[in-house]
Each structure stands twice: as structure tokens, then as C-alpha cells.
Amino acid sequence: MNVRNPGIANFGITVIQSRHSVRKFKDEPVPPEFVRKALECASKACTACNVQPWIFVQVEDRETLGKIADLATYGKFIAGAGLCILVFGEKDHPFVIEDCSAATQNLLLALHAYGYGGCWVAGDKTPYAEAVRALVNVPDKYKLVSIVAAGVPDVGGISLVEKKKLEDIVFHEKYE
Ligand SMILES: Cc1cc2nc3c(=O)[nH]c(=O)nc-3n(C[C@H](O)[C@H](O)[C@H](O)COP(=O)(O)O)c2cc1C
Predict the structure, then answer these.
(1) How confident is the prediction along the chain (176 residues), in pLDDT tens digits per residue?
(2) What is the CATH number of domain 26-154?
(3) CA-CA distances (angstroms) from residue 50 to 47, 57, 93, 124?
(4) CA nearest 22: which of 103, 86, 78?
(5) Ligand 1 centre distance from Cα of residue 172 (Å)
(6) What's the pLDDT at 106?
(7) Mutate to test the pocket of ligand 1, among 21, 144, 155, 164 (most ligand atoms within 8 A of CB)
(8) Is 76 exposed, middle or buried (0-12, 13-18, 19+ CB in 10 A)?
(9) Looking at the DSSP assignment, which residues form a beta bridge with residue 130?
(10) How far is the CA of 93 from the centre of ligand 1 (A)?
(11) Where do the structural domains in the chain lie, given as residue ranges?
(12) Are 27 and 151 in contact (CB under 8 A)?
């Protein structure tokens, strides 16, 4: 393959292909400079018409993490995370879900690139979204789109879940 930007491409593809959800964390913090870098990456995500309708709430307080874990149906492991980042979007913006999802994926990829683990926990369309928003005092012009739990992985190595084969999901020119 003739790669146009070998350094960036090789590293980028490796990060994307090896990203995986991590739900078990060591009792160690993620250094603030890495959290900031991940948030910077989130802020660089694609966003329709460059509206950037997002805000991010970084939560490290153990008690608050516990409360979010209690609320999140499939996010009990947030209680043991080093931190979580709550991704909120302007609820009246038509592309709020797309934009905030792109930012969420950037967060996960950046954390993974630095060797930290993360997992996307559902926010939008959940029964607890409003309670999480109220818990962290975010005004109601925003809605919770996602929660990213993050920390130092407490798992042995990388374990990738199986993904669908390209042959089954990619079509040339037309569906057939
Ligand atoms: C919109 C969305 C919501 C998700 N919600 C949760 C969740 O509430 N709890 C959880 O443990 N994982 C959640 N996940 C993570 C998925 O379970 C995970 O990405 C999927 O199983 C594939 O595994 P991988 O991330 O290791 O590739 C969510 C992912 C997405 C995109």
C-alpha cells in the first residue's frame, strides 16, 4: 500500500483497530494532562456546520462517580473508574446526537492511544439522562448524550470483540 502520510496513518489505524471497551480499572488516576488531551481531541471532532453543540463535564469525585454509577443501568462499573466524562449537547440542535457521538468516539480513541481504557455508557434515550444532568448542574438547554468511563485498565492485554465481516456489510455500487 502506498501510504501518503505513513507516520500518522500507521499509528492512527493501529489505534482505531485496537480500541476496545474497558470496564475494569485500577485504583489509579488518569493524569490530568492526558484527560485534557483527550478532551482536546473530543473538541476537534466533526460537527455539522462546525456548530460544536457540546459541553463536557469531567467527573473525578468518588461520591459523584458512585451516584452516576447508581443511576446508569449498564454503567455500574463507573463507580470504579478513574473518572468519567459526561458529554452533553444542545438539545435543540438537529445534529446533536451525531456531533456528540463523533466527539465521544474521539475521546475513546485518544484515551486508548495514551494507553488508558474507556467505555461508552449510554446517555441519550435513557431513563437516567435527566437525573445525571441535574446531578452535575448542567442547564436544561443541554441533554446527556453519552458517558465515557475511563481509567487505567485492570485487564490482561487487549481483548477485541468480534466484528462483522466486511464481506457481509460492504457493497459495491449497489446492495446485492
Ligand atoms: C450508543 C452506545 C451505548 C453504549 N452503552 C453502553 C452501556 O450502557 N454500558 C456498557 O457497558 N457499554 C455500552 N456501550 C459499549 C458497547 O457495549 C461496546 O462498544 C460494544 O459491545 C462493542 O465492544 P467494543 O467497544 O470493545 O468494540 C455502548 C456503546 C454505544 C455506541
Answers:
(1) 666 777 777 889 999 999 999 999 999 999 999 999 999 999 999 999 999 999 999 999 999 999 999 999 999 999 999 999 999 999 999 999 999 999 999 999 999 999 999 999 999 999 999 999 999 999 999 999 999 999 999 988 888 999 999 999 999 999 98
(2) 3.40.109.10
(3) 5, 20, 12, 21
(4) 78
(5) 29
(6) 98
(7) 21
(8) middle
(9) none
(10) 24
(11) 26-154
(12) no
Q: Whose CA is nearest to atom 13 of ligand 1?
A: 121
Ligand 1 centroid distance, CA of 64 (Å): 21
**Site to substitute for ligand 1 among 77, 119, 145, most atoms within 8 A of C-beta:** 119
Cell numbers 501518503: residue: 4
**Ligand 1 atom 19, closest CA:** 21
